[in-house]
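Example protein
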Amino acid sequence: MSREISSSVSTRERTLFLGGLAALVILGAVFRLHGLGSPAFDCDELYALRIQGSSLKEVASLVGRSAFHDLHPPLSYLLFMPWIALFGTAEAAVRALPMLLGLASIALIGFLGRRLGGPGLGLACAAFLALDPLHIAYSQEARPYALAVTLAIAAHLCFLRSLEEPSVRNRAVYALLVVAAIYTHYFALLALLPHGLVALWLLATGDEASRRAARSTLLAFAGAMATFIAWVPALAFQATGQSGAPSLGYLALGGSPLHRAGVFLTRVAGLGAAPFLLPAAAALLVLVVFAFLTRDRLPAAAATSSEGLPPRWLGAGLLAAGILLAAAVYLLAPGHLFPPARQMLLAKGYAPDAVERELRGLRRLLTAVPLAMAAIGLLGLVWPWLSSLLDRLFDRLFDRLFDRTTKRSAPGRPLAVRALLAILLLVPVTVALALALRGLPMFTDRNLLVCEPPLILALGLGAARLARSRRARLALVPIVLCLALGRFHYDAVSGIFGVRGQLLGMQTGAWRDLARGLKRQGRPDLPLVLVDAPPSDPAEFYLRGHPLKRIKEPGPLAGAGLPGEFRFVHLKGDRGSEALLAALSGVAALRPELQVDEFVVYDARPRLGGVRYVH
């Protein structure tokens, strides 16, 4: 009878949890669907639309563009290719993919919370993420951030499953998720680094079953991280910067190091601005403190689990094949690959020195791919020796810390949830703060979004712990209210209620409205003259139906060369466009014809038969 009652209660809890999670996903969808297609594409989003198709040539072109002309690994772009082929290039259609990924991450963090502390914790975590302004904003942008967060949460979940039940399937799924995450966003390396530290901690303190599970999980983690060797040359190329493309410093925050640290902490935590900044920060601190007061522990590893190490011959084969392929690619690339690549780059207008620099980077990138395979093979070969060495080192440490009569192989205590949370949360935050204070670029809110799930877990854990006590529940109401008011300061949340808040995510120009205004004016064959900008400029996308003539910002204008009649598209406040307007006004009659936000379109007729632009 008791078993029937227990089963009924379990089924009821599961039904309530799934129903509550579905309601929170629907609530998250309401905020993420609001205004999804309203803003025009910004420059960064257009990377997802630059190369489309399914052939190997187009895929290779996309990977090369990601390596040498963007600041992110290529996986998200490879995902956008079939999506855009199916649903088209409308703003809402393209952004529906990250929106759906954002909703998936709400569900995933609910399951992650349930694994750590039951259905109540799962629902609390899902609620905090569903209303997180940073997550809402970047779930509406056609960039890698939503995918990176979803993969990171899924990797956290599969990491715990692998520690509890280290089957070959669980380890394989976990390793694939880690690989996918680090090839989506660089900061996934920072977000997932704590997995290795947790596994090492279990090797040092766990019983025999826990150590066996930790060893096999650590091997999967190390093998997945080793695949990133293939992308290191691309990261090095991006870090040094290149002519005509942004470097890593492009996304650096301004102000003092302390200001930079404060900005990303404020935005990542969704604390808002004064006068609610201090109450929201205090509420967040209270929840985090209560999260670390929990005494719950993870489920123990299965005592019957085996490590299931890969065969030695597989490691030896990968090592030998990787070295041979790397040598062949390095030697054959200059004679077979470089000539057509050089010809294509020169035809697209690249300077000769930029072409040679990019070809050297391509050679390193192609050589690094088989080297990553060789590194995985080497790891498989030395892993039995390496894991044995780690065991001996931790045995000695254990003997020094504890009484020698204590048997390390005796059943141990599973890992505490607060220890796991401390490693997942504090390690990335500490590293990010230290690097931001030293002035390293790219430590912005959007890039740190992938490190946010542990903070959401901490907030949910603190709220769930407060909810257990009747007295504490009274304090939970003003705490949640303060956090809600802090989040309301951001446009991602307040915008749905018609209240303007602080902007996160995209800040785009009115190129789409300009294109519509020009269409109403008629004469689509009339050339448009505008200041030169990077090829990913939204003008290339929204004005593609008009003949475009780009002019680099001033030098002298003389002679004949501009069309007999054209329109000049002036961007107010832009230094290059202002200078070009001044130069054109001296040689052409300009008459304002249309104004759309920051754009002014002039009807232009060159004097004395036209002019020629001299670079």
The first strand starts at residue 528 and ends at 531. DSSP finds 24 helices and seven strands in the chain. The radius of gyration is 28 Å.
